[in-house]
Amino acid sequence: MEFQIGDRWIGKKHKPFIIAEMSGNHNQSLDRALAIVEAAAASGVDALKLQTYTADTMTLDIHEGDFFIKDPNSLWKGSSLYSLYQEAYTPWEWHEPIFNKCAELGILAFSTPFDESAVDFLESLKVPAYKIASFENTDIQLIRKVAATGKPLIISTGMASVAELDESVRAAKEAGAKNIILLKCTSTYPASPDNTNIATLPHLEQLFGCQVGISDHTMGFGVSVASVALGTTVIEKHFTLRRADGGVDSAFSMEPEEMAVLVTEAERAWQSIGRITYGATEREKESLKHRRSLYIAKDIQKGEMITREHIKAIRPGLGLPTKFLDEIIGKSVKENTAKGTPVNWGLF
What we know:
Elements: E1 3-5, E2 8-10, E3 17-21, H1 30-43, E4 47-52, H2 55-58, H3 81-88, H4 92-105, E5 108-113, H5 116-124, E6 130-132, H6 140-147, E7 153-156, H7 162-174, E8 180-185, H8 200-208, E9 211-215, H9 222-228, E10 232-238, H10 256-273, E11 293-296, E12 311-314, H11 325-328
Parallel strand pairs: 3-4, 3-10, 4-5, 6-7, 7-8, 8-9, 9-10
Antiparallel strand pairs: 1-2, 11-12
Helix pairs in contact: 1-4, 1-10, 6-7, 9-10
Enzyme class: transferase
InterPro entries: AFP_Neu5c_C_sf, Aldolase_TIM, PseI-like, PseI/NeuA/B-like_N, Pseudaminic_synth_PseI, SAF, SAF_AFP_Neu5Ac, SAF_PseI/NeuA/NeuB
Protein name: N-acetylneuraminate synthase
């Protein structure tokens, strides 16, 4: 199931593909956005992702009722949807300079479109892939529009039932998507590890026959690294310069030093999976000599019978395995044998 996004290979034979999600952490400054690109590239990520929308393509300019965020547990309590998206959106004229900066620094750039006009715009910029956000994973018209480009399609699965995911994946495939990645996602901000359920990953992979990954809203990198052992090929984390700088997503975003650790540890986790194997690996063979084995622990004369005092199970491992101790007791030696001699069958 491996395939490429740009010049990066995605699949279990390759280290995890790591995406830094800028979202609204640019705080309405292009200079800050470009600084985020530089920090993301320096941390070692494979790609930077934007979100492409305007407040008008997301919602209505209404500031009360259903359009007002009253949830006391929400990071955005007290804002209307429209004002939140006005604050968070990335101006479309910024996309090209941001993408150019990514190319200059050797990382990929793509985006999440939130309506069909955003797809047309992103196609004009020749993005190498698309991402569908969790809140749009049931928007079949949008999924079909993106799938028709034929480019790799990453879909976050937050809140979606199996039936809803089946409908969305079928729609994507019927519209032309050949390479689909489903990201396990918990749509709370931040998410907690105990509500992340990464045990779903292998089931998701088997159920839909596609690659899987994680869109991780937890703090830290433990969940993302653990997910690699369960089949993750793609990891997406929100990214900012400093959480203390504020911004709509800053509270659950990674800082550059944390992202660098994630890049390193995710690759180590991937390397550690390996294959099913028993016995000494090639690199372990030299260590075999440090096992315990049987050694002569006291000088013994020719013809003398071995007693428990004459033999010890010690390191190094150049004598007979310790399991033969009882068989050796009571045998006589053929020659005078000095303390420190490794036991072998030729002594008796």
